[in-house]
Write a structure and sequence with these properties.
Layout: H1 2-47, E1 61-65, H2 72-88, E2 91-94, H3 102-114, E3 119-122, H4 131-139, E4 144-147, E5 158-161, H5 165-180, E6 184-190, H6 196-208, E7 217-224, H7 229-242, E8 246-251, H8 254-266, E9 274-277, H9 281-290, E10 296-298, H10 301-316, E11 327-329, E12 335-337, E13 343-345, E14 350-352
Parallel strand pairs: 1-2, 1-3, 3-4, 4-5, 5-13, 6-7, 6-8, 8-9
Antiparallel strand pairs: 10-14, 11-12
Helix pairs in contact: 2-10, 3-4, 5-6, 7-8, 8-9
């Protein structure tokens, strides 16, 4: 028993010694453990500028916030924004939510405000809901502009408007006249009969037709496809049957223009009836190349993103305050002025045709 007790005591002493020796390094390593996070954080701080090709200290970082990511329209806007960033020597981040949701957008914007970014260019998912968030950003010293879709007044400094109604109306009549050779019957295939923007454009198109240069164009009727593909298609077929001398269908709606062009193809009327109006390059590429819709128009979202960054740069650098009458440099797009209604007008819509249709992807 004595030997067993002695052996047990020795074993306990050995184990205790091992424990002491194991604990000793931990005590010496404690400072290293506290230093490790600093070593991890230091590269993060030095690497952040590397993402924008090692910008100079104090470089401004702007954020382009679309309605949602994965949308070719906004991806094109981002390409323009990145082009502007390269010219100005600033960083532009492109951040948004997967879905076009105002609540998610507000959450993202609150995070960006906390990060104290240099400026925000936002396409609003909800004009009124984003006002408090936009105001919070401006109260924090962060300039806010909107593009494509405006935050209501009070939530942004100014809105960059892609086009004005009169310009949209004028370019559509001009295209119709070009396609008709300056004379003949034309018709309008609109969205719904109650759509305010469509009705405004139609009234302005009628006013445009009163100009002497369009005296030989005859607007025979206006029909409505309700922004439904099948109904728009059937209305286009009906126009061609009702008006055998019809030369041009103007469809100031992305649904109506594609449906009308498809109807022209299906009815073997390419070259006899031509379609124009407002659409996107991706949906209309086939019809431009087939001759069903030789030309159509829309604003260029790349230019919209480009101008948004130039606007933020002017605001953040103190070149302008954003008040009506303020002028700022828009790079390759020229000089811009803040209008009395708190907007900046991008300019005339872009006309797409066989020469440039493949240059765009949205």
């Amino acid at each position: 028993m004595k030997h067993r007790s002695l052996n047990l005591a020795i074993a306990v002493l050995v184990i205790f010694g091992v424990l002491l020796s194991a604990c000793a390094p931990a005590a010496t390593q404690a400072p290293a453990a506290t230093e490790a996070p600093a070593e991890v954080e230091a590269p993060a701080e030095s690497e952040a500028p590397a993402e924008s090709e090692a910008p100079a200290a104090g470089e401004m970082t702007f954020v382009l916030v679309p309605k949602n990511l994965g949308n070719p329209y906004f991806d094109t806007a981002n390409k323009g924004a990145q082009e502007a960033a390269g010219e100005l020597g600033v960083t532009v981040l492109y951040q948004g939510s997967a879905t076009a949701d105002a609540t998610e957008q507000i959450t993202l914007l609150n995070s960006l405000i906390a990060q104290k970014v240099s400026g925000l260019a936002i396409s609003a998912n909800d004009s009124d809901a984003l006002v408090p968030t936009g105001k919070a950003a401006m109260d924090a010293g962060i300039p806010v502009v909107t593009f494509d879709s405006a935050i209501a007044e009070g939530g942004r400094i100014f809105h960059i408007n892609q086009a004005e109604a009169s310009g949209i109306a004028a370019v559509q009549i001009q295209m119709a006249s070009d396609l008709a050779g300056g004379e003949g019957q034309i018709a309008i295939l609109s969205a719904t009969s109650t759509a305010p923007n469509q009705n405004a454009w139609i009234e302005l198109m009628k006013e445009e037709l009163q100009k002497p240069e369009y005296a030989n164009l005859e607007l025979v009727t206006t029909v409505y496809g309700d922004d439904q593909d099948e109904k728009s298609y059937n209305e286009a077929v009906g126009l061609m049957k009702t008006y055998p001398d019809l030369k041009v269908i103007i469809a100031p709606t992305t649904v109506g223009i594609a449906a009308s062009a498809r109807a022209v193809q299906d009815q073997d009327m390419v070259g006899k009836v031509m379609v124009t109006g407002l659409g996107t390059p991706n949906q209309m590429r086939e019809y431009v190349k087939s001759g069903a819709s030789p030309q159509f128009a829309l604003w260029n979202p790349g230019d919209l993103g480009y101008l948004s960054i130039y606007a933020l740069n002017a605001l953040a650098s103190g070149a302008i305050e954003g008040k009506p009458g303020d002028k700022f440099d828009g790079g390759k797009l020229g000089e811009y002025t803040v209008l009395d209604d708190g907007t900046v007008l991008l300019g005339d819509p872009t006309v797409f045709n066989a020469d440039n249709i493949d240059d765009f992807d949205f």
